[in-house]
Q: What sequence folds into this?
């Protein structure tokens, strides 16, 4: 590759990342809690909001729909006032949808508030087909009608939406949230089985309960929601970002470093912590955060399978794979949530890693992708020395993984497309510098 653009970071590898950074509210909760504010009859206060692009996209979309969004008294606090919700211009919605998947979650709240909704085409990471059929199936069950229109889908609720019995074909995070955000104001009881139970979903349920919703969660993936006539605002501190925390933990391991992640929480990271320990990473938990470090000596190869919570979260996979290139022996990674989330490994191979992809389900159990010709299993053979390279960021976590690989490598890498990382990692360049990374913008400025 030749040429440089503003969207490039030069990374001089070989320095262990050391120091402290802080994670704030979760990318996979905050934008959804913002959407929930649409359901209230009064203002909501959301605290611990990170400055990331997905938050800005949702803020813009809410404002287009007449919600007032302003900073609160404390840093990272937003006050969202939905008193005057109104229809937005379709062209404006499309222009603001950006690269986020969140617009699909406006369906239920807008149907309740306005009786109709326009949902633009979705963004999000290109890590599989990412259909939205479950979302529309459940909305139809609530009584919505859906019509394809130019640039998106137009939905209507001819009468008040009605609670229903729903079984998801797969415990999809977004579809579970769709049901929650729709059922809380629907008439009667909704029973959702095979629901996703990720910590961010539990936190969204906490938000909705604060607003006046009646929701119970059984231990068997069943969620029951009794619809109410009216919801108020909420005051909520978003749970911390366990995905960002794990990314920094993997960076500590791959670079031989030591990072204290202020805000990281044991409860939502238990599965990651067990895996980190099996690989040979060290950690220490206190009330304010978790310290992650490489204790010296060889790392261990492991077998790893991603899964829905409480399994190993798929968004943890890509950064940890970089650390696995430094482990002694053969690691097996079976990605069971997204069919195309291992493509990022070809660039790691260019840097000197040995990663072979397979169509078969390796290790663990057979998954939905086994018989369907997707390269969704990997064998990582290590340890391998990594060399700096020209890298083009493919998706959010793949992008962070390339940064980790470049930091662990000998020599200089040019990482293209770094702006994508702003979608989910607050101030990541400043954090890298704080941790001692040698990174440079093309003009020669130290970030
Ligand atoms: C903004 C956000 O919170 N994103 C997270 C959310 O994405 P998102 O909510 O999009 O992910 P889902 O849990 O819905 O997707 C899981 C699987 O279900 C499939 N599926 C989903 C919906 C549908 O209508 N039809 C269908 O087939 C998907 O293709 C995928 O194979 O959960 C994922 C799984 O933990 C995480 O990786 C993402 O970071
Ligand atoms: C896949 C991810 O996000 P999204 O669903 O927003 O694309 C992610 O956060 O890794």
A:
């Amino acid at each position: 590759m030749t040429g440089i653009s503003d969207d490039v970071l030069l990374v001089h590898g070989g320095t262990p990342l050391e120091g402290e950074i802080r994670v704030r509210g979760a990318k996979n909760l905050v934008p959804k809690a913002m959407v929930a504010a649409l359901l209230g009859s009064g203002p909501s206060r959301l605290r611990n909001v990170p400055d990331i692009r997905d938050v800005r996209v949702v803020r813009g979309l809410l404002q287009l729909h007449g919600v007032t969004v302003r900073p609160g008294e404390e840093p990272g606090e937003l006050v969202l006032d939905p008193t005057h919700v109104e229809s937005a211009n379709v062209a404006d919605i499309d222009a603001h949808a950006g690269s986020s998947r969140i617009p699909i979650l406006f369906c239920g709240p807008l149907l309740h508030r306005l009786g109709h909704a326009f949902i633009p085409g979705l963004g999000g990471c290109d890590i599989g087909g990412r259909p939205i059929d479950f979302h529309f199936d459940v909305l139809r069950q609530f009584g919505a009608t859906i019509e394809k229109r130019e640039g998106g889908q137009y939905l209507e609720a001819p009468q008040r939406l009605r609670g229903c019995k729903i079984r998801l074909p797969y415990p999809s995070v977004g579809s579970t949230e769709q049901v929650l955000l729709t059922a809380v104001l629907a008439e009667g009881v909704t029973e959702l089985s095979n629901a996703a139970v990720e910590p961010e979903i539990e936190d969204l349920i906490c938000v909705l309960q604060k607003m006046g919703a009646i929701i119970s969660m059984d231990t068997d993936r069943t969620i029951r929601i009794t619809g109410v006539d009216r919801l108020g605002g909420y005051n909520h501190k978003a749970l911390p970002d366990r995905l960002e925390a794990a990314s920094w933990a993997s960076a500590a391991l791959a670079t031989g470093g030591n990072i204290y992640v202020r805000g990281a929480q044991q409860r939502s990271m238990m599965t990651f912590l067990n895996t980190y320990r099996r690989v040979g990473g060290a950690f220490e938990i206190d009330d304010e955060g978790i310290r992650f470090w490489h204790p010296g000596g060889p790392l261990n190869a492991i077998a790893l399978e991603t899964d829905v919570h409480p399994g190993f979260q798929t968004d943890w996979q890509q950064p940890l794979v970089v650390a696995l290139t430094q482990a002694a022996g053969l690691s097996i990674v079976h990605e069971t949530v997204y069919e195309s989330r291992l493509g990022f490994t070809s660039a790691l191979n260019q840097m000197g890693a040995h990663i072979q992809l397979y169509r078969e389900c390796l290790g663990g159990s057979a998954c939905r992708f086994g018989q369907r010709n997707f390269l969704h299993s990997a064998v990582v053979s290590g340890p391998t020395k990594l060399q700096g390279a020209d890298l083009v960021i493919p998706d959010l976590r793949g992008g962070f993984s390339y940064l980790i690989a470049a930091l662990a490598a000998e020599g200089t890498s040019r990482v293209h497309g770094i702006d994508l990382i702003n979608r989910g990692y607050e101030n990541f360049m400043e954090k890298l510098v704080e941790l001692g990374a040698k990174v440079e913008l093309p003009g020669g400025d130290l970030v």
In short: Residues 27, 101, 124-125, 127, 315, 396-397, 424 surround phosphoenolpyruvate (ligand 2) (CB under 6 Å).
